[in-house]
Structures are given as C-alpha cells and as structure tokens.
Sequence to fold (100 residues):
Amino acid sequence: MIHYTCDCCKRKIDADDELRYIVRLEVYAALDPSEEADDDRDHLQEIQEVLERLDDPQEAEACSEVYHQQRFDLCSECRDQYVQDPLGRPLTAQVNFSQN
Ligand SMILES: [Zn+2]
Fold:
C-alpha cells in the first residue's frame, strides 16, 4: 500500500481510501509574443531546449528564472481550497473585487 502526504497540510493520504490530487505548477517567462503567435511549435521547442539544459546544475540555476516547474500532492480538502485560491490571494480581496 502506498501512502502519500499532502504537501499542503502534511496529512497522510490513503490512496486506497480517498482521492489524491496532483498540482503541476509550470511558470515560464513569456517569450516574444509575436514569435509565440507565429508558430506554437517553435515556442515548445524553446521550452524543450530549456528543459534539456536543466540536466546541467549550473545551467539549471540560470534557467530557473526562465522556467520553473513544481509538483504537489494534495488531499481533497486542500485541493478544494487551492482551486478557489491558486495564487494565494486573500479571499476578502477577491470578494471586494467582484463587488466593484
Ligand atoms: Zn491537505
């Protein structure tokens, strides 16, 4: 039996008993918008090249500002909270914003 731990509340998730959610976070620098619009494959290839360079630890550090990827396991409760507030903004600010 495999046990996972929620990366948010550190609770153990029993994979047999409850759903586990995976958050894949991908943050990358927006490349030249005109290039991006021209051909999506070029854009993907540039990302691929960045990923390949991540094998080299020194290059990885240089690339971390260009491309950042993280993966989290979440329990169902933390998942519900995360999808409501993925950027960690205060909920009150969101309510005020929607009322305006
Ligand atoms: Zn949790």
Residues 6, 8-9, 11, 74-75, 77-78 surround zinc ion (CB under 6 Å). The first helix runs from residue 33 to 38. The mean pLDDT is 80.
